[in-house]
Design a protein that fits this description.
This protein has 213 residues and is an all-alpha fold. The protein folds into two domains: 2-20 and 141-211; 27-134, Hypothetical protein, domain 2 (Endonuclease III, domain 1, Orthogonal Bundle), CATH 1.10.340. It is 57% helix and 2% strand. It is built from twelve helices and two strands. It has helices at residues 6-16, 27-36, 42-56, 60-64, 68-75, 81-97, 102-109, 113-118, 125-134, 145-153, 162-166, 177-194, and strands spanning 2-3, 210-211. A two-stranded parallel ribbon has the order 1-2. Helix 1 packs across helix 12 (177-194). The longest helix has 18 residues, at 177-194.
Length: 213
């Protein structure tokens, strides 16, 4: 069966239910988690996140007030602790200048918001799209590894890196922020079940489908 982009979302939601992603108690936790998860797994990121929670309650101003050595120690379980510490300070300092008023920041930068995020240390294309979707409620397709693997399984060719899918894939105009968040979560949850090993995809409810983008 040939699918448009909306159909895999609807099919995954029908078979799997809502994803509940991003699992966090606040937008600040999502921001911090999105930086910690870079180039590591959830277990390592969670260890660092919990240490930061105990030290700062994940309050941005308290995190920004930490001495550099202490911040390094708290972030260390997530790996690349110097770079990630710098990224946390860069992103949170930028948000602080906007009084952590996410709707106002979105309104101020408009269509240039992604470009502004990309200027911040440690914010690559994927992190920028995560922040757009989950923090600023700008519906954005997150072309992460699970998404590229899924779309390859559905017959899309040439997906070699984040940009190769992001340039070809945008959400339909009627996708709400909630749908965009859920779609990303469903793709990642699907991947955890059916991509380890990849041969398990043939057992999935999408195995006979073909995607058109």
């Amino acid at each position: 069966m040939q699918l448009t982009l909306t159909q895999p979302y609807e099919k995954m939601r029908s078979n799997m239910g809502p994803s509940g992603w991003w699992p966090a108690d606040s937008k600040e936790e999502i921001i911090i988690g999105a930086i910690l998860i870079q180039n590591t797994n959830w277990q390592n990121a969670d260890r660092a996140l919990e240490q930061l929670r105990q030290a700062t309650a994940l309050q941005p101003d308290r995190l920004l007030a930490l001495p550099t050595d202490q911040l390094h120690g708290l972030v260390r379980p997530a790996g690349f602790y110097r770079n990630k510490s710098r990224a946390l300070v860069s992103v949170l300092s930028w948000l602080k200048r906007g009084n952590y008023d996410y709707p106002a920041i979105r309104q101020r930068y408009g269509s240039q918001l992604r470009n502004e995020l990309r200027k911040l240390h440690g914010v690559g294309p994927e992190t920028a799209d995560v922040l757009l979707t989950y923090i600023f409620d700008v519906p954005t397709f997150i072309s992460d590894k699970y998404a590229r693997t899924l779309f390859t399984c559905l017959g899309v060719t040439g997906l070699t890196d984040y940009r190769s899918l992001a340039q070809r894939c945008s959400l339909p105009a009627d996708f709400s922020p909630a749908m965009a968040k859920d779609f990303h979560g469903l793709i990642d949850e699907f991947g955890k079940v059916y991509f380890h090993p990849l041969s398990k995809f043939q057992e999935s409810f999408l195995s006979e489908d073909h995607l058109i983008i």
